[in-house]
Structure to design on (828 residues):
């Protein structure tokens, strides 16, 4: 141990004698290890860490799969209200099973009224999660069945709205202006459902209390999710067989309008369900940052190799005096370890800073972002990475040190001699750096071009001069259709009278929101290519001048208007995609369609207009089939699906098209709503341009982060090529002087040095282009409008690397050409 500290003291003393070298090496490693640690903390928090529930590996998702129907985007459909009840009643593999649904409520009675995210849950969800409340209790299945109005608060809501008061239990809050009794408060880190992003976490939980409509006509609405806990000893396969038996019973009990469809169940871990959407992005980020670390390691190895070459005379003397090669090998590795551990510790500070600043910038597609941080697993990873980096990077210079030829080195008297023997290794390191930097630069170029292509996509509407806001009318005050209609008509009238307002519309769906209400429909005369396949479309309820307000163009026929009221001819407007699929090559005006399936007895509606397609999500998503119906005719259009519980137009979006900048209308919009209902909160008050920008955020984040890594990798690679060329010139300074003494021009010397750099860059680019082509499959899911082997991007990236490599070689070349002949030759 004393020997180790003695060697460490010598190492530190030697590194202090070369502060420029030491600082450069530590900073390079801090950048690589810090960035890698920050990204690993995301990987660990999102993908690797078990879910924050006891025995989380036994938590399963139970879902339906309907052949040919992909409601959730992963091949699954979720579950219906009758399914949740049937799976709980007819399966025997689960200790507890429950259904849940994300929703929002107007919360009042505790601070300012606000729209909050919440979850409706059956009594089986909390027992399945097996998390005990911090205070009080959770609601029971009996309270759910009896439709008791009780609520469990999140820790954040308890602290923000009740100041952490422990007397909160038994107090009442108003949800949609109905009184709910607070029965419990969950722990600080409890989160369920595990929704993506920072903004959508639930603030409270209430009993599901299925409505009559949900358990009857709701048999065709897959709007719920189901979570279950496996019994001890039960495998996933056994649970799947059990669930499929229950699914067969569900199908047998389907109402007549579901005739002809089939269904089976899927059971899979909740962990897999939570992370599947985030996995490609997180893996790509980790690979990108690993490339940056690889280049930093190559640079460190090159710097250590240069240092070993410069110290070769010292090493030769020590060998001549009897120092063993084993001792020199250990000393060289210790040098590398001291630098790498120092870089690792500094990298941890950098990673902590990056996470504090960057977590809030993460895209809303990532789940569990609240668990990302520097825990002991991440710290151990960083320190282990630092030690591994030191060992690997120290091997090349260590072996270079012990292979020093004592006699030749002492005869050289410090001249280049055998140092040229290590030139190939240094060049190979630089070639590798350039190659991996080019791979990242190509990826960055592809993402940038893809993002530019996405920005050029026609969204199908005009976002300029448009202001939108979301609202939800509480049922306790607006419990009848008359009350809802009165509010909406008065709101339209007052908004239309505001100075600067051109058009006012109300709608259940706006573009770029990412949400929709999908239903099956039947187009008269259309026969699906796959028998039994359900034809799905987004259903949009509208009122007022919605189409001109949002800027969706009319292609044929007419728009919906005030004459399309209850009791008049039932009409709809369809979008171009629905018209082309249902009546290809025909004029859709005058055609008929109805809600449901072939077996459904719902009324026919006449198509009176065709409008353009708009993107419901980000610009890189495909347009979906859509049709529009007025709020006044919605109940008539629903037919047998309608129930007394249905209220049309009791929530959605307000859309204003203005003559002035839309931001200037925000206060007037809020004041107008509060003049009608002082307690009604508005959410998502923003311009449509902002909404579109937010929909582009995930792709913008991917592009920005990969570009940042590419820039860091390229900078490190250019520093590497500069250091190699500069050191090569320093070793050949006498050769350059002799060349010029024999008649070589300074231009020729510059050309000679630039050629050396160009050769390294060309070889690195060739290898890098091959690597970029090999990694094309990884990038394909992130691209839009470009191929992963786009020749323009790859060529531009290669040319950029070549030019930067030449620029990095220019300074050493000019130094070589400006050498003092007399002094150099005299020193020889």
């Amino acid at each position: 141990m004393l020997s180790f500290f003695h060697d460490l003291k010598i190492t530190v003393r030697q590194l202090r004698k070369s502060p420029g070298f030491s600082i450069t090496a530590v900073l390079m490693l801090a950048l690589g290890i810090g960035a890698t640690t920050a990204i690993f903390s995301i990987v660990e928090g999102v993908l690797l860490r078990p879910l924050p529930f006891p025995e989380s590996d036994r938590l399963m998702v139970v879902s339906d799969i309907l052949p040919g129907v992909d409601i959730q985007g992963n091949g699954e459909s979720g579950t219906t209200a009758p399914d949740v009840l049937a799976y709980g009643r007819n399966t025997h593999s689960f200790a507890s099973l429950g259904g849940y649904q994300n929703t929002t409520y107007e919360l009042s009675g505790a601070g300012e009224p606000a729209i909050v995210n919440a979850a409706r849950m059956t009594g089986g969800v909390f027992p399945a999660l097996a998390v005990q409340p911090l205070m009080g209790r959770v609601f029971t299945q009996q309270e759910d069945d009896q439709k008791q109005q009780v609520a469990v608060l999140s820790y954040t809501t308890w602290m923000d709205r009740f100041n952490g008061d422990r007397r909160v239990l038994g107090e009442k809050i108003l949800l949609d202006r109905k009184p709910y009794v607070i029965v419990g408060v969950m722990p600080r880190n409890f989160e369920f459902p595990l929704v993506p992003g920072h903004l959508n976490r639930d603030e409270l939980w209430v009993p599901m209390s299925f409505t009559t409509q949900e358990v009857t006509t709701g048999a065709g609405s897959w709007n719920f999710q189901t979570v279950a806990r496996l019994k001890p000893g039960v495998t996933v396969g056994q649970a799947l067989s059990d669930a499929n038996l229950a699914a067969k019973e569900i199908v047998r009990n389907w109402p007549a309008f579901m005739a002809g469809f089939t269904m089976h169940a899927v059971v899979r871990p909740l962990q897999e369900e939570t992370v599947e959407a985030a996995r490609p992005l997180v893996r790509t980020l980790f690979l990108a940052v690993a490339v940056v670390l690889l280049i930093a390691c190559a640079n460190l190895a090159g710097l250590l190799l240069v240092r070993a070459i410069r110290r070769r005379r010292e090493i030769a003397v020590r060998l001549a005096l009897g120092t063993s090669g084993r001792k020199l090998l250990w000393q060289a590795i210790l040098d590398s370890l001291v630098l790498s551990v120092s870089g690792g510790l500094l990298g941890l500070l950098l990673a902590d800073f990056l996470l504090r600043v960057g977590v809030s910038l993460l895209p809303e597609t990532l789940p569990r972002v609240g668990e990302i941080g520097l825990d002991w697993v991440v710290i151990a990873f960083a320190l282990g990475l630092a030690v591994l980096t030191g060992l690997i990077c120290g091997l090349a210079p260590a072996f270079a040190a012990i292979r020093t030829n004592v006699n030749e080195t002492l005869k050289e008297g410090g001249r280049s001699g055998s140092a040229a023997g290590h030139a190939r290794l240094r060049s190979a390191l630089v070639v590798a750096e350039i190659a991996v930097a080019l791979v990242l630069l190509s990826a960055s170029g592809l993402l940038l071009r893809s993002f530019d292509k996405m920005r050029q996509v026609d969204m199908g509407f005009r976002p300029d001069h448009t202001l939108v806001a979301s609202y939800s009318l509480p049922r306790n005050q607006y419990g009848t259709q008359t009350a809802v209609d009165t509010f909406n008509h008065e709101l339209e009238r007052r908004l239309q009278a505001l100075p600067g307002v051109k058009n006012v519309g109300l709608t259940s769906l706006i573009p770029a929101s990412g949400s929709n209400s999908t239903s099956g429909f039947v187009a008269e005369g259309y026969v699906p290519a796959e028998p039994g396949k359900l034809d799905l479309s987004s259903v949009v309820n509208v009122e007022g001048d919605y189409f001109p307000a949002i800027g969706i163009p009319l292609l044929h026929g007419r728009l919906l208007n005030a004459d399309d009221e209850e009791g008049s001819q039932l009409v709809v407007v369809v979008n171009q995609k629905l018209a082309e699929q249902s009546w290809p090559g025909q004029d859709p005006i005058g055609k008929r369609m109805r809600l449901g399936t072939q077996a459904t007895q719902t009324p026919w509606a006449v198509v009176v207009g065709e409008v353009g397609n708009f993107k419901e999500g980000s610009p890189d998503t495909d347009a979906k089939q859509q049709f529009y119906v007025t709020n006044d005719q919605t109940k008539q259009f629903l037919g047998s699906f309608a129930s007394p519980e249905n209220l049309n137009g009791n929530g959605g979006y307000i859309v204003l098209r203005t003559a002035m900048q839309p931001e200037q209308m925000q206060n007037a919009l809020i004041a107008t709503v509060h003049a009608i209902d002082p307690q009604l909160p508005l959410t998502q008050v923003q311009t449509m341009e902002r909404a579109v920008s937010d929909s582009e955020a995930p792709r913008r984040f991917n592009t920005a982060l990969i570009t940042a890594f590419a820039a860091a990798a390229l900078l490190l690679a250019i520093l590497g090529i500069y250091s190699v060329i500069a050191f090569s010139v320093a070793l050949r300074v006498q050769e350059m002087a002799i060349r010029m003494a024999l008649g070589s021009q300074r231009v020729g010397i510059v050309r000679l040095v630039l050629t050396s750099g160009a050769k390294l860059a060309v070889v690195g680019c060739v290898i890098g282009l091959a690597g970029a082509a090999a990694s094309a499959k990884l990038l394909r899911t992130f691209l839009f409008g470009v191929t992963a082997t786009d020749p323009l991007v790859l060529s531009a990236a290669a040319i950029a690397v070549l030019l930067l490599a030449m620029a990095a070689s220019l300074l050493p070349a000019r130094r070589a050409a400006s050498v003092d002949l007399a002094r150099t030759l005299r020193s020889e």
Remarks:
- The two ends are 46 Å apart (CA to CA).
- The chain is about 50% helix and 15% strand.
